[in-house]
Specification:
Number of domains: 2
Helix content: 10-25%
Strand order of the largest sheet: 3-2-1-4-5-6
CATH topology of the largest domain: Tumour Suppressor Smad4
Distance between the termini: 60 Å
Structural class: alpha/beta
Oligomer: single chain
Order of helices and strands: EHEEHEHEEHEEEEEEHEEEEEEH
CATH architecture of the largest domain: Sandwich
Length: 292
Amino acid sequence: MRQCIGLFINLANAEAVRWANYSARRLLELGAEVCISPEAVPHMAPELLPQLQVQPPEQFANIVDIVLTFGGDGTMLAAAQRFLSSQLPLMGVNVGKLGFLAEFSVEELDSALDALIGGHYRIVDRTVLQASVHGKRFYALNDIVVEKHASPHMILLRAFVNEHHVADYRADGLIVTTPTGSTAYSLSCGGPIIAPSARVLCLTPICPHTLTLRSLIVPDDCRIRLELLSRDPAVVVPDGQLQEPLARGEQVHIELSPHVVKLVKHADSSYFDLLRRKLLWAADAANVPSAP
């Protein structure tokens, strides 16, 4: 049975479009079927279009075996939001900068596509957060952020874990991150790197006023409640994808979602290989030439 690969493309990125066209052509040569969304049609090479299936993303679950994303980690997060309920595995091709989620580089694209069609890959499950506010529910693979909005002032957030008062954070905001998101916004705010298999969540303050406020790791079966105490407005931002306003006295309830996101990984590498490659942990500083 022929595999069908769906393409999820950052259409605002010319390099993403270019490599998506390249991959579509290569996948067809390898005997796979390729499915794109109607929005992508004007961006595909005319000679490829007769060979491509065109379906809205909500139909991908009925047709597609794996979704190949082209962009960066933001594109992967958008794809995770779009295909959350479908359980479709996501394989990220990075045409951006660092790329922890979109870990396949364009330099290895040919071998990655060969491995994909040959079944030489592994799939890992990543935990997902869910946040409830204003009767709405939001999901995040990386993190739920509550941060200041339209004001230069810090906000004041009161945090509870399983209804135990943890702290009052006077800061630019607070990040609640999964292990997957620990190498994203939380890391840039001084948070720890967490192995994806760890069953934990992490609360990391953004530029706290009190230097003793540090990241806090809690079991991932905990329920987290955040209450805005300050007059200045805030916003709830799941995975950087959208914003929900938060006013004084309003609360956000955060917990682990029953959903998981399936990610396609290299068959013969580990998370620690990824860290060494992306963060240059294997670099030998002693052998780096000094500046003249």
